[in-house]
Each structure stands twice: as C-alpha cells, then as structure tokens.
Amino acid sequence: MNKKILFIILGVVVIGAAFYIYSFRSGSSKHLRLVPANASALVTFNLKKLTDKADFNGKFKETKLYKTMLSKSKELKETDGMGLLMSEILKNPLDNGLDVFSDMYVFVQNNAEDKNIGVVMDVKDKKDFAAFIGKIPGLAKNMHDEKGYQVFSHGNDYFAWNENGLLILETSNSYGDEKKQEIIKMFNILMVQDKKNSMAENKEFKQYSDNKHDISLFLNYGELMNTYSKMTANNPMVKKLMDNYKGIYISGGISFENDKIAMSSKTHGDAKAIEKINYLNKKGVDNKALQYITNDKVYALFSMSLDIPKIISMFADEKSMMQSLEQTAMGMGLTVKELESVFSGEITMALVDIIEMESKNHSYKMNEATGEIEMVEEIAKQPMPVFTLNMGIKDRANYDKLMKNIPIAVINGMRKFPLGYIPTFYAIETEYGLTFTNDSTLGAGIVTNKKTMKEPNAEVAGLMTGKPSAAYFNLNLNNYPAAVSDYFSRMAGEKSFSYFKDYMSLFNDMKGTGDVDGASFEINLVKGEGNSLFRLLKQFDTLPLEEL
User: Fold this and answer.
1) Which of 162, 419, 437, 541 has the fewest other C-beta atoms within 10 Å?
2) How far is the CA of 548 from the CAs of 72, 79, 137, 143, in angstroms?
3) 8 A C-beta contact, residue 434 and residue 427
C-alpha cells in the first residue's frame, strides 16, 4: 500500500496542473466526512501549493522523474487497480469528475486486530466521474451499487465513491475473500457515516487544522496508544503509560521553502494530560555541558534535559514497579530519593569524529589443499564513529555513594567498560558531570588537560541551550572524512554509492528543537535556484530511475 500511495501522490501532482488554468477557483472539504473521527493519523496534501512549488507546468515537465512517471504509468500489472486508475487520470487530468483543487487526505485507523489505510479525494461531479470510470474496461466491469455508494475493484484494490468523495481503502492482516469482506464492511460504515462521526466534526482537528502547510499532519495520540494498550493489557504498567496519552493531539506539517524544508508541530488537547506526560525540564542543557562535547568537529548532536524526579514518580502508583526500583536503589547503596538526586537529567550525545580502525572479520573460503570450506579470520580497516556522551551530576555526595558500589576501578583517571563485541567505552569524571567516550585517546586528553574541550559552533550550541530537547545532523557528505566514503563505496558498490552521494549533495544539515508544547525542525539545502520541493524532485535526475 505504501508504494501505491506514493504513486497516487506523484500522480496527483500531475492533475494539479489544472490549478494553473483556473487559478482563482478553490476546492471543497466535503470529502473530509469520509475520514473517521477516530483516525489515529491524518495527512493532508495541499495539491494547489504542492503543484505550484513543484513548478509542474514549467521545469518539472523537463525532469527525468516526470518522464519516468508517464512511462511507468503505462506499464501496469493486471492486479494493479490503483495504477490503472492513476494512468487514466494522467491522461484526463481535467475531465474525470474529480476536484483537483481540493486537498487529498491519507488516514490511518488502528484497532487491536489490524490497521486500515485510506486515501480520500473529492468528487466534484458524480455523473462525470461515473462516465470516466465507465470508459475504463478494467474498472467498469467490476462496478456495482451498494446502499448509498458505488464500489469497484481491480485485482487487489478496492474503491468506493458517492457525492461525498472517492475512498481507496487497504486493510492489513487479511487476504482474498476475507480482505474483500473486511473492506466492504468498512465501506458500509465510512461512505454513509454521519458528519458528526467524521473528522470534519472532530473539534481538535477543526480548531488546529489550517492551510499554512503544504503537507499537514494530525495525530490522535489517544487512538494510537489505544491499540498498543490493548496489545499489552496483561502489563498494567505499560497500559497505564499508554492511557496517559488519551486526550492528546499533535498538529503540524511540512512546508517547502527556498533552500529549506520546514517542519513544525504543536501539542494540544487535555492540558492536564499534556502536563502529565511532560518528562522534560523547562530549559535546555547548561552551558557547561557544551564544553565537554567535542574536541574539533561535531557531525551529529542530540541533547535532552529530563525531569528525573517526575520520571521516577511515574512508578509510585504501581506497587510492583516501585518495589523493583527500591531494590535497584538499595543495591547501589542508595534510597530512591537519593538515586533521583544524583543526576541533573541533562544528557548530550554527539558524533565527534570518524577514525579508521582495524577489526576482525570472519568469512568462509575454500581450502584448496583439503577441498573443504573453512572459516577464515581477516583483519580489515573500517571507519569507527567516535562519540561523547555527557550526563550532568546534581548531587556529588550521592554520586560518590553510588560510584563506591560500581566495581570498576579508576585507572589513569578513567573507568574502562569492556563490552565484548561492542567497542570498549571509557567514563571520565569532569567538573560538569560524567563523560563517556569510545575513544581512549580522546578520554585521556580530557583527563590530562583537566580542561574543557571545544564547544560546538554558536548556532548549534544555541539549539542545545534553548530548548529541553534539540538535535543537529550534518548532511553534507563532503564534510566527513574520506574513510567514510571509501567504506560505503566498498559496501554498497562504487556505482550505487556514487548515485547516493550525488543525490545527497543537495543537502547541508538538519537541526531542530522541541518541548512538550511542540517541535520545530528544518532540513537545510545548499543554496540554489527554485523551491526546495522542485529541487528535491529535480535531484532524482541524478539517479538511474529506469533501473529502479
């Protein structure tokens, strides 16, 4: 279904060309009533904006991606009803009865047994759409009337429509006749449901949905978590945690801007429920945390400031969990209260270097002398990511009590943790707290110098100190050591990696921040001409689409 939805999304961009002909006309939202009010997720595609930003009627038609889409739409399998429908829509973008000016919706509906995924489009003229379908032999032969709507199928794909809209529905965990019966059962509910039972009357959606995003998201945490709470009904602690998300919603979306893809979200709903799941402190990490992150560069960085007492209090209402926590604390020589006071909750984790190291690999080869296949141990060089992990210490006295019960001695200022197949990592006490790294040279440098390392650049540092959670990721492959490219070129093949590198040359970095109220992220592109959406689509020209 995922590939089919992608095909629909790309294909609908084509029919959006009508927007350029009737640029002042607006679409409707009446087809929103086909989306159930209890959908766990709803994605809205603003076809007008996407078509405009993709420069459909201009340079997009010159791209290899567009030409490949047209070519692939003609290569349809007999069981691919969705592909068949989209192929005909591509041929008749204006004369098919669908309203290409209206938003397209993709929703997910969960229950304990399976998951339903639906795609909804607006039918502007019932007669025109019926005539359009009637001209497609592969679809028309399977069309029949149901109470309040019409349904048709082709292969494994099922469609229903009436004056409210077109619904394409897929369900998981069922096949053959069972799948058909399940989908018809859903059609009987959704195609004729009262507006009050639809997303059109969901008060949280009505209040927070807007048209400012190119692609909008509405997430119903309660419904999403309800599925998992049913699956874990025998685990009261997990069920209780899942139940905490009832009444909480996330609204947001993606906007394609010049040289940037901006993503944002807002948390809303039951204020008490939102505060209950807020396990973050109000501010970001302390400035001192930044001074123990990197000694030169930072390729990726994540930070979080957790409310440790609140997290521990989550266990208080569950007797068995609290007893386990008390026993754990006792084994460390502390009370639960002392344990929660040890760390500040400030955590940073960073990828600060990539170095080449020798590692043992095992392979099987033919022994020509014996004629038998034997396992051979080989020494090979490969890049190893170097990280630093910092944890802030709040109560030094209780920290010292804790460390007395850690049976790993301090040698040359470091505790060494050998973990078998996982690279050894080292723990160093600092003025700020505890620094972990998997590079002994880096660890020794911190011990020897008795001073801080370099901070990340001011722009990245500002993210970490500004919000209780933040992230940064360098997407420019040219900024990474040559050993990284060499390794992946060997692993994926020189040709494949070359295509990947060419496509990634469009990107610069990703950065963002978040708290319980919402999040804001952006993917930054290198400077260039045109909207970021068009540039993303144009960049596919660097790939061998005919081979994919």
Assistant:
1) 419
2) 11, 20, 29, 33
3) yes
Q: How far apart are CA 195 and CA 192, in angstroms?
A: 9
Query: 299 phi and psi, to 5 degrees?
Result: -95, -35
- The dihedral formed by the CA atoms of 433, 435, 441 and 447, expressed in degrees to the nearest 10: 10
Of 328, 34, 348, 318, which Cα lies nearest the Cα of 168?
Answer: 34
Pair 537, 54: CB distance under 8 Å: yes
What is the helix (H) or strand (E) element at residue 301, kind and residue range?
A: strand 300-305
DSSP codes, 400-462: HHHHTT----EETTEEEEEETTEEEEEEEE-SSEEEEES-HHHHHHHHHH-S--BPPPHHHHH
Comparing CA positions, the residue from 86, 161, 157, 89 lying closest to residue 124 is 161
Residue stretches of the chain with pLDDT short of 70: 1-27, 72-80, 90-94, 111-114, 172-176, 227-239, 359-362, 419-422, 450-451, 548
* 85 in Cβ contact with 152 (< 8 Å): no
Q: Which DSSP state fits 526?
A: P
Pairwise CA distance, residues 28 & 32, whole Å: 9
Cα end-to-end span (Å), the chain: 18
SS3 state at 234 = coil
Amino acid, res. 304: M
Helix, strand counts (H, E) of the chain: 22, 20
Are β-strands 507-515 and 372-393 bridged in parallel, bridged antiparallel, or unpaired? unpaired
- Residue 165 DSSP SS3: strand
**What's the confidence (pLDDT) of residue 27?**
63
The burial class, CB within 10 Å (0-12 / 13-18 / 19+), for 265 is: middle
Identify the DSSP state of 280. Answer: B
**Per-residue b or e along 443-464, where b marks 16 or more CB atoms closer than 10 Å to that residue's CB:** bbebbeeeebbebbeeebbbbb
Nearest by Cα to 93 from 132, 55, 134, 66: 132
Q: Which two tokens stand for residue 3?
A: 């590939």
Select from 56, 14, 76, 72 the least CA-distant residue to 546.
Answer: 72
How many residues are present in the chain?
548
Q: Which of 120, 127, 123 is nearest to 164 (CA)?
A: 123
State the pLDDT at residue 454: 82
- C-alpha of 405 from chain center: 40
CB 89 within 8 A of CB 18: no
Sequence-ordered list of residues with C-beta below 8 angstroms from that of 487, at least 6 positions apart, any chain:
382, 383
Of 175, 163, 136, 173, which Cα lies nearest the Cα of 152?
136
Token representation of residue 432: 């700020």
Q: Can you spell out the DSSP letters for 249-317?
A: EEEEEEEEEBTEEEEEEEEEE-HHHHHHT--B-SS---HHHHTTSBSS--SEEEEEEB-HHHHHHTTTT
117, two tokens: 């995924």
Q: What is the pTM of this model?
A: 0.85
Please tell me the predicted confidence (pLDDT) of residue 225.
79
Tokens of 235: 């685990």
